[in-house]
């Protein structure tokens, strides 16, 4: 079906690439904050807080329309919520077993593989390869002893990557069927219904502690409400392949967040990796041809 008429938030004056870059910065600073929440409430508790508070914020701000939706509309947004919830749960689970650099590298193979599959230009394939090398260098995966790796953790990170690729595709389809930000608001609400019962069962009263709520609110804004909304808007005018390569900036943004929030210093190898990632993104941004203007059915 044809994408809905652009609203001011999706007007051509705001380039979709800018929206993606803002989302990348936001989610990585939210990730730095999430590192401090996991020990307090666990994986399910952290995801439940993140999605639940984001659903509350978006629900009050947007007031999404519930009536008049077709079964296919609900099926699409339901699958979107399932992919989103599974992506967060599997990635947070991998962080409890793997070094974060290794987990991020494995997870990022999902959107990179999507970009490679969807690409039909040799320059895009070169960009994907450069981004992959850059991600590996930034994460320091090559310097982590294999004896320290956890097979369950690797499987969880790989599953998170597959869910991330599904999220990219389903986000675009959701944006085509729901005006404004209704789709992402309903997605967060469904995701909360899916994760809150287990979050309550595993974290208990710790979910309501002031420290957990404050951190959860910050993560809900930085890692969910803001970036997912920006990405949904961007994917209405940006192809999933281009979007996947632009996400190669995630590790670079994570390195910046680590430096500013966690005082983590970058090595020369990591700086080289960041340079490769930026070059890959420039190759994609410099590609001629307009992004997709027709949303998928």
Automatic annotation (TrEMBL):
Transmembrane feature ranges: 12-34, 40-62, 74-92, 98-118, 125-146, 152-171, 183-206, 212-230, 242-262, 268-286
Keyword terms of this UniProt record: Membrane, Transmembrane, Transmembrane helix
Alphabetized SUPFAM superfamilies for the sequence: Multidrug resistance efflux transporter EmrE
Residue span(s) of domain EamA: 152-285
Annotated family: Belongs to the EamA transporter family.
Name this polypeptide is given: Membrane protein
